[in-house]
Design brief:
The structure is a single chain. Helices cover 46% and strands 23% of the residues. By secondary structure, it is of the alpha+beta class. The protein has one domain. A five-stranded antiparallel sheet has the order 3-2-4-1-5, sandwiched between helices. β2 and β3 form a beta hairpin. The longest helix has 16 residues. The protein is globular and about 40 Å long. The protein starts with 5 loop residues before the first strand and ends with a helix.
């Protein structure tokens, strides 16, 4: 098992496959192979408009973490997040994402995976046995992108989860 928080994006050819992958992750959590701090399926319609389909927030989180994950998914995939992304707020959040170890190239690759008519499963993985988890997801195919978040990000997520 790895410690820290990994951001994992798995691109799928359609929303149904991404939803099946989400169900596999739920089972992997039940089997103690993964501990997920947040998960969502993000889909992009034929017109290129992205939307968050599954809004799970975090497995044991409150409003703060749910809002944070929604905002992060929005920034990764350019999903409109209400009126929150305006002016300096966008710059501050993008700076936070960079500080958390989410680099521009990862954001770009995440957006490239999510083409019109496709979907992605986005996971904040707190702990996992990576080889077993990826083997369980492998039958569904998909393009896997992974980045480890900075120690600061891990501390902030863990503190928010423990505070709840």
């Amino acid at each position: 098992m790895t410690d820290g928080v990994d951001l994992v994006v798995i691109g799928y050819p359609d929303e149904a496959t991404a939803e099946k992958a989400y169900e596999v992750v739920v089972q992997l959590q039940h089997d103690l192979i993964m501990q997920v701090a947040g998960a969502a399926v993000v889909a992009k319609d034929a017109d290129g408009k992205a939307k968050m389909v599954t809004k799970t927030g975090a497995t044991s989180s409150g409003a703060f973490m749910g809002s944070f994950f929604g905002l992060l998914f929005g920034l990764l995939f350019l999903v409109p997040v209400g009126g929150l992304i305006i002016g300096g707020i966008l710059g501050a959040v993008m700076g936070t994402l960079t500080g958390w170890g989410i680099k521009d190239d990862f954001r770009q690759r995440s957006q490239d995976v999510l083409k019109p008519g496709t979907a992605a499963l986005v996971l904040f993985v707190k702990k996992w046995t990576e080889d077993k988890a990826l083997a369980a997801l492998a039958p569904l195919g998909g393009e896997v992108l992974k980045t480890s978040l900075s120690d600061e990000a891990t501390k902030e997520i863990n503190a928010a989860l423990e505070a709840d």
